[in-house]
Design brief:
Blueprint: E1 2-7, H1 12-15, H2 29-41, E2 49-52, H3 56-66, E3 73-75, H4 92-98, H5 100-108, H6 121-138, E4 142-146, H7 148-159, E5 176-182, E6 185-193
Parallel strand pairs: 1-4, 2-3, 2-4
Antiparallel strand pairs: 1-5, 5-6
Length: 200
């Protein structure tokens, strides 16, 4: 089976470098174009299921993929982005200026560091990974459309990385990462592929 992990297209908050978390921000015009190109790049894939975060930016991206396949979207709240609590909506600059002490803690111990009134990477992985386990048991070619931290924690599982190494894994907006399961063993065929975004 094949598992295709997709990060949603760009939003205005991505462009403005704001903490997005569970804030329900729509795709920008650029993000919609990215999602169109992403969907077109997957049109010839045999896709049997599409799982998606309930947040608008993920659903809008998933709909562009589903347009080429007669497959309904399965909305899974467990796939939404990490709840970043009090930091939601702050610019990265504001975060650095106002919460420097917390950021030092985040750099030192990213796995268990809990966002004020939000979640940690540990908590995020604990809620998102069971969805992936169920997908793997289904043995169907599946697309998962989610978010930066969500996908990063999932990939850490596949790579057998501790979450303290999450910064070694990167997924750009509207990227796709392909994992093939061969005899029960996951093999990452491509990571953070954005080649489709360069096509006119």
């Amino acid at each position: 089976m094949k598992l295709i992990l997709v990060r949603h297209g760009e939003t205005i908050w991505n462009k403005d470098r704001r903490v997005q978390g569970i804030s329900d921000i729509e795709l920008s015009d650029v993000g919609l174009d990215q999602a169109e190109k992403l969907g077109a790049s997957l049109k010839d894939e045999k896709i049997e299921a599409i799982y998606v975060s309930p947040l608008k930016r993920a659903r809008q991206t998933a709909m562009k993929i589903a347009a080429f396949h007669n497959v309904p979207l399965s909305i899974k709240k467990e796939l939404q982005e990490m709840d970043q609590g009090d930091f939601e909506g702050l610019s990265f600059k504001e975060l650095a200026e106002k919460h420097g002490a917390f950021l030092k803690q985040w750099v030192a111990d990213p796995a268990s560091c809990v966002m004020p009134n939000g979640e940690s990477l540990d908590m995020l992985q604990a809620r998102a990974w069971p969805v992936i386990e169920n997908i793997l048991q289904s043995d169907r070619n599946t697309v998962v459309v989610a978010h930066n931290f969500t996908l990063t924690t999932i990939l850490c599982k596949f790579l057998n990385f501790s979450l303290s190494r999450f910064r070694e894994v990167h997924v750009d907006t509207a990227s796709k990462t392909v994992v093939e399961i061969q005899d029960g063993v996951p093999v990452i065929r491509c990571l953070n592929d954005v080649s489709h975004l360069k096509m006119d």
